[in-house]
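Quick illustration, no need to memorize.
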Amino acid sequence: MISKKEGQKKKGIALFEIMLMVMTTLAVAFVMQQSFGIVSARGSIVPSDDGKSWVVRQDGKDYAIFNEYTDAQEAVDRLNGLSGAGVSSGKTALETAPVKPAVTGVPTGVAGVSVIQKAGTTGWTATSTNGATINIEPNTVLAGETFLSDGSYKSITAVADGQGKYDIWADKGVFSEGTHLGTMSKEEADGLQKTLSGQAGITQLGKPLGGMDLMKSLGEGVAFAVGAFTLVQLLSGAFGATESMRMALSASAAMGVMAWKATAALTQGRTGTFWQGGGAMLVGVAAAIITFVLLYEDEKKELVSFSCEPFQPPLGGKQCEECNKYSFKPCTEYRCKSLGQACELLNAGTKDEACAWVNKYDTTSPIISTWKKPLYPNNLTYNPDTTRPSGLGSKIIKTGGTTTCLDAFTPLSFGVTTNEPSQCRIDYLHTNSYSNMTYMFGESNLFLYNHSQSMRLPAPESSTNLTGSPAFKNDGSYTLYVRCIDANGNENVDEYTFKFCVDKSPDTTPPVIETTSIISGSPVQFNISAVPIQVYTNEPATCKWSRTSKDYGDMENNMSCSGNLVKINSDLVYPCSGTLTGVKDKEMNAFYFRCKDNPQKADKDRNVMTQSYQLILRGSQSLNILNAGPNGTVYGSTDVAIVNLSVETDDGSDEGKAWCYYSDTGNSGDYIMMYETNNTVRHVQQLDLASGTYTYYFKCIDNGGNSAEDSTTFTVFVDKSMPLVTRVYKDTPDALKIVTDEDAECAYSFNSCNFNFDEGTKMIYNPVDVKNVHLAQWKDNAIYYVKCRDAYGNEPSPNQCNIIANAAKLSATS
């Protein structure tokens, strides 16, 4: 049974899809924004207290643009508080301007505006220096607007309405709707652009909203989204929402807010009912709903069964001949049999090897009969099932008792044999064909003559569905159906049946502890006071343990047991888990277990063990590595030298017996078990190494789980040169003396260099403990043909010498 829940991978994919959707929306909106021809004068329009005078401020330079006002001195006073070069020119013009009803002229220093005059009762008209006119709606449009903290607008924006006109908007910010100021034609907008272009404090008109503005929009949107995510996480957790629900709600809130704010910014100033009527908010709501639908899925559980079985070739042998078609690629037995169950390699080992379909015309299904060897318990037997007309079946009965029914909660094994290699299946339901059957007989898909099946019998009243084995019904009598199929695909039409019953007598036997995860008498790790343990019972039960043998009710330590019949493990027993505490080093630690069956029943109907199951754990001591080698220099005479890594262990759980591993890196995943190891105290691994310096690391582990580590460093020296004679002379009174450059043994002949070293006359050492000084008996006028061999076997070739010494010449010169 596994829990199938949407994991982090699926959530990540869903979030990526949503982010992709939002970013696509923003990109489309940005393209639309450019196609509408948004232009912007990036300055600050500061209103006076009466909403009738306006100042454009940018980078410390101020320019005055006026609509209707009542007091010129008031505007002058206001400008007095501002800094920048533009203030003085604006101030002079105001002092000479008429007070009412309007300004008919302004100084040329004002950016891009030469005349502002009243346009009747509908508003004001601003005329640029090149004659372009902007119609400004009445000031009542501005009434009640909420400004930023500094009381300013962020920009002036002209938005094409698709009909040859531009709407003029005062923008309060990236996430605001803006204030509509009037309209003008494209020609007027172009003229205004040319007029304001290059003026201090006002950026060029006609430049679309820049990348920095878009990044700012996204940044503010993310900030709002993070806040919404955190808030919903806290609130949904307080109300007890599941993890899946919390994630879905929080993410949908964040995505909704981000989509709403971003859309509002990018559709700012649009004409039309949809955007003015809250279209951005509708986009946010849609994004939130889509996010929730993609992310939220309630947890659900499914029963999943799987098996890992050996590969089996297809039935029959239609493809056998394919193996013979390639002359350059011989047909091996493996290739032949992999093409079909009925393929065989004929004339193996000869030049006439061929793969063929054997028994091609076999149409007979396997013959099934009972197999006695696996039948268990020993008091069971097979009886022919005479109730079946076909006679294809047997009853499994118990002998030697008051009933022929089998005992509940006991293991049952039985088997079948077939007249040809077959694959068999078993089921507890009648089916129409082999392929419709659920279980492999014995959980094996191999084609065999003999097949065995094991299971554990439940109580008659139990209802279970055992993983990998047939399930049993509730009436206490069971029928199992078996079919087999041969290599040619011939299967049994009629099933072979096994019938048996489970004793319906009341369960009066206590549970049985059949084994434990640690075998009694096993050692445990040094200096560990707590050891995890599992006990395995023959039926569902609850278990306890104690350090002394006592009644179940008096035992102090409970274990975690499954009372569910489907929790049987692969060994057909029921596990109970716990932790044994108080384990003492270097002592025999005794623990006692007792169990009570039928966890689902009332206590009076349960059977309890009256004798304890004893488990002994041997406390140990630390494992030690006494020495590791080799050390120093290792010599060799060929391209590589034979090096024996060695480790000697002691103490631990079994007086040094352990398994040892070696590595040339020391990384945990690189260790290899030594060749001579496994429960010994001396561990050896032979290696062939070239010249160089090496470091090897060792790790040893004993039966109790104790471990020890060590390392060794050594040098390999490969000597491939024969010894050299450094001196030769006559030594008094009558000896020939030869000195070599290394320890060696020397031999000579009086005939020639063509002699076998071992057949030559050996020279002696003088003194005996110095191995590079060699003596031979002196003979006048003799010629000595000398060969020398070092400790690594380096010597001259068969027809060469190290030196040829002429006694006559040596005598004359000595």
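The longest strand covers residues 411-427.
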